[in-house]
Write the structure tokens for this entry.
Amino acid sequence: MSFNRRSLLAACAGLPFATSAFASARQVGLGELAARSGRYFGSAVTRDDVSDAGPHIRLFDGECSVWVPSWQMKWGALVPTLGETPDYRNCDTIVASAAKRDKRLRGHALIWHEHLPAGAERLSTAADWRRFVAPHITAVAGRYRDAIFEWDVVNEAIEPYDDGADLMRRSPFYAMLGPDYVAEAFRLAAEAAPSARLYLNDDHLYYAEDWQERRRTGMLRLLDRLVKAKVPIHGLGMQCHLDTRLRFDERIFRRFLGQIEDLGLTLSITELDVTEAPNAGDRSMAQRRLRAAAEAGKVLSVALDSPALAGVVTWGLSDDDSWLRNRGADMADNQGLPYDDAYRPTPLRDALASRFASTRTRHPT
Ligand code: XIL
């Protein structure tokens, strides 16, 4: 893959990967820093990131206490075409590597409207749910019942732009069971993996913009219904794909976190990264990285004031591998993760480290 390019970049920078990227025993890993307040720090990983021979295994090992497969546990990754037998080999490799290195695993995601098996986008009846979706949840959650400590059971259930009075996304899952699909997915997951902590995961819940306020409203209503119905849900995962073009108001985010706490739920930052390239202007690379770090820092500071926050996961460690880079021509050199293209730590890593070190709250574990 890009191993050669990366090695070259690192060498050009005078910092060969082995020494620049978390090889030094002197550096305290973010996982260790987070653990001081009862929290975890982790990253999304691919199978190659965590394979024994992978060029970056020392970085993912050194920095993280938690790993999350970014792709390989999704339904469409396990079952490319509806009706096929799931192929668990990639997931099993990640699970084995995590066990060997004492990492905890978050599972992502049992139900998501994207990356479905081909053909699943047409499912629309309760019988389809019973035939295809319920067995999928039961099989995956059950297979990894001892390996996964937290599951994103449902990903991205809220979508006010779909114009439903309940502000929920009109996905195939919604077509099959209506709004009850969420509760049903959590019940199935709890049955199959009784000791896992079960999360609803979603994005765009942090900024002051009206469209995000509507999403917060939709999310609070859904969570309130689930909690009142005694559905086995433990937490809200906030993806935190942040964006320097949007307006952050600390009071609004703090109020939202308080409302989640009042429901008795745990919080987690599950997919942190920062979009900064489209409005980078003529800033230097160093300025851009500082700006991304400041953006993450604002959100982290408020979130870490909440004892309900269980941990922070970034969506990858290095910009070189970031999914954001593929999100448009203006994203090709985006700087939004704790390591740069040459696998050197960025100011965003410092932001994470300093926030973990200075938090005054503790997550009860
Ligand atoms: C992304 C992965 O990073 C990509 O590798 C994949 O092709 C598409 O999905 N929100 C989510 C994640 O919940 O699952 C997405 O991950 C990023 C947005």
User: Anything to note?
Assistant: Residues 70-71, 155, 239, 271, 323 surround XIL (CB under 6 Å).
